Fold this sequence. Notes:
Blueprint: H1 3-9, H2 21-38, H3 45-52, H4 56-63, H5 66-74, H6 80-88, H7 95-107, H8 111-124, H9 126-147, H10 152-175, H11 179-183, H12 186-202
Helix pairs in contact: 2-3, 2-5, 3-4, 6-7, 6-9, 7-12, 8-9, 9-10, 10-12
Amino acid sequence: MTAGEAAERRPARTGRRPGNPDTRRAILDAARATFAESGFDGSSIRRIAGRAGVDPALVHHYFGTKDDLFMATIEIPIDLPALLRGVGAAGPDGLGERMVTMILTVWDSPAGAGLAGWLRTALADEGRARLLREFVVGSVAGPFAASLGLPEAERDRRTGLVMTQVLGLIVGRYLLFLEPVVALPPAQLIASVGGTIQRYLTGPLPDGTA
C-alpha cells in the first residue's frame, strides 16, 4: 500500500482544525455574548471557550489574554495597553505631556477615523460603555497607575481625574470639533492639557474636607 492510499483510508479528523476561520469567528461570537451578559470582570477564557465549543488553549492560541480577546471583540484599531506602557516607561516626569502627545499622534493618524466611530458607538450604548469602564479601570488604568508607583489609596482618584482630561480632549477635538480646541496648535494642547494631567498624577490634590 502506498503512502497516498494509506492517507486516503485514514478516518477523517473531527472538529475544527487550527487555522479554520470558523473557529476564530465562533470564539469572537462567544466572547461578545459572554462579555455582554457578564461584563468584562465576570467573564473568563474558560467560560468563553465552553460557549464556543473549543478548548481554552485554542482561545489563547488565537487571541492571547482575555484583554487581547476583549480588544478584538470591540475592534479598536490600537493596542491601548501597549501604548500606555510606552508612555509610562520613562517614569513620572513629563508623563502628562507624553500622554497628550500620544493621544494627538494616534487620533491624527489614519486610525483616528476608526477610533471616532468606535467611541461614538461605545458612548451611545450602555452595555458597551459598561464594558469599556470595566476594561479601562481594571486592565489599563489600574496597572498603569501601579507601574508609576502611585499610592494605592490614591490610584482610583488620580486615574479617574486623568480620564476626565483624556476623554474631554478626545471628545472636544475629534467628536464635537470644538473650534477653540481644534484651532489650538498641538504644542499648546500638549503643554496645557499635559500640565493638568501631570498634576492629577503626581501633584498635591485637595483633601476633600473643605
